[in-house]
Amino acid sequence: MAITRRQFIKQSAGVASVGMFLPRVWLGESQAQTPMGAANRKMVVIQLIGGNDGLNTVIPYTNSRYYSLRPSLAFKQSELKDDMDRSMLISSDLALNPAMKEIKELYDEGKVAIINGVGYSQPSLSHFLSMDVWHTANLAGAGGIGWLGKYADAALIEKDGISAASIGGSLPKSLFASKSVIPSIQDFSLYNFITDPGHPEDYQNQLDAFTAASSRSFEPGAFRSAINMTAMDAVQGAQQLQAAVASYSSRVAYPENNPLAAALKMAAQILITMPEAALLYVMLGSFDTHSDQIDHRSGQPNRLAGQHSSLIKWLSQAVKAFYEDLNQHGLADDVLIMEWSEFGRRPEENASLGTDHGTANSMFVIGNPVRGGLYGEAPSLNALDLDSAGNVKFTVDFRSVYATILDRWLQGDSQSILGEKFENIGFLG
Amino acid sequence: MASISFDDAAHLLRRMGFGGSPDELDQLAAFGSREAAVDHLLNYDRIDDSALDNLTAQKFQINDPPLDNTKFNPQELRRLWFTRMILTKRQFQEKITLFWHNHFATAISKVNQEVLMQVQNNTLRANALARFDDLLLKVAQDPAMLIWLDTLQNVRGNTNENWARELQELFTMGIKDVVTGETNYSQTDITEIARAFTGWNFTRPPASDPFNYTFRFNTNSHDNGLKTIYSGTASAVTSNLDGKDVIPIICNRPATARFLVKKFFDFFVYPLDFTTKQDRNTADALAAVYLSHDHSIKEFARAIFTSDEFWSDRARYALIKTPPEFVVGPIRMFGATYNPGGPTAQRDNSIFQRSALLGMDCYDPPDVSGWDLNSAWVNTASMLDRYNVANTLATTRTQNPTTQQGAFITIDQLRKYTKASTKKTVKGFISVLNVSTDKPTINSLRQYLDADTPFDPSTDTVIDQKVRGLVHLIMCLPEFQLS
Asked: Residue B253: which of B165, B151, B185 has the closest Cα?
């Protein structure tokens, strides 16, 4: 896997999840029980694609093994401060990457929970399989339905309007649902049904013909059925979205040339102008740093610049701007941010100033609802504790993070969504 | 020999190409049998494409501006390829090159040297129907791939696993056998194979010959030790392996043959469901063709396109069009009126940009697994984008289609299929655009033509408005999204 500017995510090729195509009318009476979910409790998911280097995100700066495994990549203690000379240390043995000063500020305010050692047993080192594991909350990566899609089917399906959305040109598997059509929105201005600009008087005629053709029903499971459902949701949603986001205004300046900031700004516009919006999903790519993860243009390794530093800075600056925007619009108490990546990277650096695929990683959960601090246990880097590929062993099952959020924030039913019961990690009380 | 109808020819050309005009489909049907039509498309090197070659020689100067011999204009690479897709008479050549680009997905965003993307594209085109071993070796030794998956950094004593992993996971056999579900390789196989590929590098050409990159083997950085791969399997080997030795071992594994069947079916036939015995048998039967024909991609492709599966009802309209198919297809179906502009001014960049908007920016796949196909194209953003791209094609007008750059559906083309009645008009355009739909939809399209004022096709102003609207609406049908 390698670098990409566009934030796409993997979906299973070929066979579509059959459930994805069930028409909405099939919901019927079986959905009559009280839906899960709670008013004013919203979540934004940030997926870092490619495998974020957790050890250079949450840095074990007192661990001699960290330094011996990473002679070029390891941050020296003296480097662990931001560009205003403020310390990046968050505990007696952990520090944040110096490019994360905004997240450090939120951490100091008690708004960031960092869960260390998150992974699963017999981890896959394949991007694609490991992403599927996380998306589906199924350790075989099977099933084809996403954990958030299941939540949306249970909790959001009865809501009118856009209750869940992905920002980007494709839908992440986390949001694959059995019953819900969850929109993906790449660009507000293009999210519209446009007809011949030379004949605006014909718009309604075209829309009528389009609507008639899209109101047919097809055999469930067939591609044309999925297309049809999506088409109608797209056109109807587009009309609502156009009306809503036009009313957005903000005093927050999002950073320029930061694709995650652009996506989170769109998420903010939706959250702020569409009260029913409860679940937003954004992605940032290019974390697959097999080579040149730090800068070395001067001939010397410079850990404070380069690929990973730039990406982490994008993350930090984007999250801060987004948080401020929500705060100014009175929504900061309502929104939880969850960050994840399909795996961390190998403790030992490779010869290319990069790192190969790893396993367990740190996760960030951010927002006013969070009980800030450190959770889980940072995995041991001792040789005997590493697996045969030289990777760390997980200490926290990622599904317990999902369960904590589902049960303690989204008021969902984690057991029915995840298939089993997982412990509460405690970052939401 | 099975006879071939007009609809069969349309099905075949949508899959082995991007679609064709009614005249082109008639010509293909005139081959008399499915086998002969497939043979004609497969043996594309016998088809005269000199008109395209002359045009591209005239209208393209991809190393302009010549900053240095690595920095070509990235837009020009894309303009060139899409021009080929629209105008080539060798449709299968471009289609299978697109398939291999998706299979060996390599992105300019990391390779960062446009010339290398063109070199790789040339390699894929030149070897598209060779033995799979030969294609894979050529791709592996091509500079774009050596950069893309970090083989250049893979040296003795300090392996980089990127290439060794994706070689197996994405390019040849997958993590698990698609039919048996057995695990195909271990982490040890990845590290051992990475050792085998140490020391692979390339030599840059002189500025006077910018495409002529050559592979270079650095003995000094190659790990000469023994490597053991696939131990405990029928492919087990312990030897002082080089990458060149590994490729034939991988290409001869039955798991690779079955994986290739899956990849070809996803792109050219229909998505296989390996939970069914029928589809497992299909995979086994075609995998056997690959293995018994010396891994010839050409014979493998012939077996697929002449198979009962390919011609079955199940295969008809069973794939969702990729963005290039959606963008290029209708232009070809209307008879391919296209002027790419150029060489230095008035270049038409609209076509590849439409494909990029729909999610497939050629030369810049999202990651090494390429673009996901079929249901992955179905989401609200991409559907709206398709409708709007269709609107742009249907409603972009020109007075001078031969001199103005861009793709246009001309008033002449529209007039050709416009008939006196709304029924015949709707049916005519549905046929041109290769759509099969139902009566209620035909009726609502007829109502559209009659809306506000009764349809009067005797005037060009009506054709220019309502028939363009009709073309847009047909391209918005769920049926048109399917190939």
From this structure: B185
